[in-house]
Amino acid sequence: MKVLLTGAAGFIGSAIGDLLTAEGHEVLGVDAFIAQAWGAGQALPDGVQRLDVREAEGWIPLLRGVDVVCHQAALVGAGVTVSDLPAYAAHNDLGTAALLAAMHEAGVRGVVFASSMVVYGEGRYRCPEHGEVAPTARDVEALAAGVFENPCPTCGAPLDWKRVTEDARLDPRSGYAASKVAQEHYASAWARQVSGRAIGLRYHNVYGPRMPKDTPYSGVAAVFRSSLERGQPPRVFEDGGQMRDFVHVSDVARANLLALQAVCDGTAAPYAAYNVCSGSPISIAQVARMLGSREPEITGDYRLGDVRHIVASPDLARTELGFTAEVGPAAGLREFAHAPLRG
User: Fold this and answer.
1) Model pLDDT for residues 267-279, shown as the tens digit of each residue
2) How far apart are alpha carbons 183 and 57 in whole angstroms?
């Protein structure tokens, strides 16, 4: 395959590029190298061109002859204030739309792109008495009192979390989340209009070597690492019982390879979205403890934009893409405790 890889200099993009190259595929790497992701004093890696996806109408000569695009470029982060909205709309919404339009002009009919678990908002919940329910927003007074579990909207009993499947409703809770939903909708519309194929990969909590530290792109695992390296305990919000799925970047790269192959060989549906996860849920407090010998500080603090539990089902990706994670969190997080980070 000849693959145009956007976001090629980034944490996930560079892992995908390395795997594609190792498998004998031709990779054209591009990256906007934006300040929010890289900070000052960083150099663009060899073999990656500085190009901004928002200006992708100028990429048409580069796209000609490409078999498939792997679109990892995005502005990421919590996106918890309304002042973030224009930046997310520009980089993620406009950037994806511009890229898809340029692909059409260049005759490229396949794309695999990075989506996220944030499209779901809260995860999936079940009340022992009332069955599966959608929780309302958590009450501020309850959070302040240390009551963090979502209550049943009918009886008020604490809800049990369940694995989220890809057919769950989309309920973005931040500007970043809204932009990822928009990317999915743009890709689905593009595939329908041009008779193309598009796959969105809904990444859960990605971690691994070369993860950025001390930037808005730092995930919680890197934040905990930074605290430990400063000799401080990791600070954990709420009671640390929030359940997540942590997936190693090498598995994320492999999921992209499988999706790209499915798009190129025509076995993929015109549009599909898949969870990319380890399939092994773990609490935030457990993550903090696996990364070092210092006991985390369970703060009881909360953020109104946070969801309580979001745990993915790996079944559809396994059935349709043949993807199963190879690195579990027990081994992967202990290795990550000593892995090199990107400064």
Assistant:
1) 999 999 999 999 9
2) 17
